[in-house]
Structure formats: structure tokens, C-alpha cells
Amino acid sequence: MPASGVAEEAALLGTMPSDSMDDIELKNIQLQFPSARSLSRDDSSAQEEVVETDRGNIVVAVQGSRNKPAILTYHDLGLNYVSSFQAFFNYIDMRALLENFCVYHINAPGQEEGAQTLPEDYIYPSVDELAGQLSYVLTHFGLKQFIGFGVGAGANILARFALINPNQVTALCLINCVSTQAGWIEWGYQKLNARHLRSKGMTQGVLDYLMWHHFGRNTEERNHDLVQVYKSYFERNVNPTNLALFIDSYVRRSDLNIQRELDPTKRKESTTLKMPVINITGSLSPHVDDTVTFNGRLDPTNSSWMKV
């Protein structure tokens, strides 16, 4: 290129406000860092209250305005309201839900954050007795009806209450709900887990079982950060003795004894759940077959099965 052409190009480039444009762009960019995943009660907007029941006190956390319709949540094994539901209800898209409902998070006895080890002579409630504790919660807060939102063991407990008190349950959203009694394999694994939790604490075997129970197989292929958060939570935050008692109670559960009535004229007298039920599981969940069995025992006119 001729020297005059180079000079002309340099002059033209010199007139471009490239430097100032770069400065403006950099000044206008605000770096955003993803917040660290955690399962901390400090991040919760819920207010905790102690509710007295016939089988001891339980902790219930209330989130939202109490003059709104009620949602009652119940957690799964190894979890509590913080580790099971806090992130869901704090998610930005759930704000509309909290604006229209008040959520009452129920913790099974001894499963709340920072729980003291239950006394040696304490007899842990059966799953039917855990369901019965819900009546005390309703009385304590002056609730007449609620929508139930339960996961795993909590879903089974809510279903038990709904079978006995159908007029107090508007609808149920149940995740990984098991309607049958424990099989021999589950019974054996859980009895071994409970023994290890009592004698050795959170062993690697118990940890692996809990991770499988909540995430299914091949957890290393899932969201790495989330998996690590729950591993750390199970190792550091769970009271092993209290969890062993909860596991023992759940593994001794009875069958829900519900049955789908195929004759439309007899559905009102059927022994299944009467309220609308959404029965949810994950495509990688180890409980898919259990939810299919549960779905086959529900009234198809007021229930839906969803695999996500």
C-alpha cells in the first residue's frame, strides 16, 4: 500500500472514538457472579413456631401472610423444610405463589435444623401418628383446610392424613409417593442404615443410600454443585440418631390400602383419595415404579401422573 494510503487510513482510524467506546462499554458492564448454593436457615424468610402434639413438640415454619389460604409441606428422609423446600419457595417465579398462599412447613420430630438428640426413652411416632400430628398443627394455626405438598416420606404422611380427613384437604401435590409397605430390599437397607446412624453416625454407606434415594443412580453425572451441597449437608447438618428414628418409623409403614374403583357408580364409596391429586416423579428417580403403582390406585377423574 502506498505511503499516502497508509497515512490516510491512519488518519481515518484516528478519528474513530474506539478508545472511548471501549471505555464506555467496560464501565457499563456490571459483573454478575452466581450465588453459592447453600442450605442455610439464614436464607429463609419463614418464622418458626413450636407446636405441641400428643407425641411431643414439632417445629413448624410459617412463610407468607397468615390470612391467605394454606399450603402444608412435609419433607423426605434426611431433610427438613430448609433443605427440602426453601430453595423452591425462594425461587423468583414462586413469588406469585407466596403472594396468594401462606406456607406452613412441617418438620418431623427431631429433623429440624440444629435439633438436639431425642431422649433414649423417646418412642418415635409411627407414620400414622406423624399424620395425626397434622391435626394439632391445624388447630394451633386455626386452619380449616389446606393444600398438601409432600416429598417421599412426607408425601406418604400427607396421603394418610387426607384419607382420614378428606374434608380438610383441598388438594395434594405428592412427589415420589409410595403407597405400599416396604419391600424386603428396602427394609434390609434401611435397617442397616439406621443401625449405622446410631452406632457410627453418617457413614459412607448411609450417605450413598441417601444420595441414591434423592437423586437416583449416577449422581456424578448430575449438577455437580448441587450434589456436593447435599453431600455436605448430610455429613454436617443431619442428626444421625434422630434420622435413624425417622427411618425406622417410615420403613415400618403400612400399606395405604387404597384402590381404584372402576365402576363409575361406586366411585363415591371407593377407598381412594377423594381430593385432586397430582402425582409427580422424575425420569431418573428410583421411585418411578412406586408412583406408577400409586397412580393405578387413584381415581383417574381427579388425579394426574407426571414424570419430569
CATH superfamily of one domain: Alpha/Beta hydrolase fold, catalytic domain
How many individual helices? 11
Shape category: globular
The level of helicity is: 40-55%
What's the Cα radius of gyration? 26 Å
Q: Nutshell version of this structure?
A:
With 308 residues, this protein is an alpha/beta fold. The chain has helices at 3-15, 18-28, 81-90, 95-100, 127-141, 153-164, 184-199, 204-215, 224-236, 240-251, 288-295, and strands at residues 47-53, 56-63, 70-74, 102-106, 146-151, 169-175, 277-281, 303-307.
SSE map:
Layout: H1 3-15, H2 18-28, E1 47-53, E2 56-63, E3 70-74, H3 81-90, H4 95-100, E4 102-106, H5 127-141, E5 146-151, H6 153-164, E6 169-175, H7 184-199, H8 204-215, H9 224-236, H10 240-251, E7 277-281, H11 288-295, E8 303-307
Parallel strand pairs: 3-4, 3-5, 5-6, 6-7, 7-8
Antiparallel strand pairs: 1-2, 2-4
Helix pairs in contact: 5-6, 7-10, 8-9
Q: Which features would summarize this protein structure in a list?
A:
308 residues; NDRG; 42% helix; Rossmann fold; alpha/beta; eight-stranded mixed sheet; single chain
Structure description:
Residues 31-37 have low confidence and may be disordered. The protein has eleven helices and eight strands. Strands 1-2-4-3-5-6-7-8 form an eight-stranded mixed β-sheet, with helices on both faces. Helix 7 packs antiparallel against helix 10 (240-251) and helix 8 (204-215) crosses helix 9. The N and C termini lie far apart (63 Å). It is α/β, with parallel strands linked by helices. It has helices spanning 3-15, 18-28, 81-90, 95-100, 127-141, 153-164, 184-199, 204-215, 224-236, 240-251, 288-295; strands spanning 47-53, 56-63, 70-74, 102-106, 146-151, 169-175, 277-281, 303-307. The protein has a domain at 41-181 and 255-307: Rossmann fold. Helix 11 links the parallel strand 7 (277-281) and strand 8. This is NDRG3. Belongs to the NDRG family.
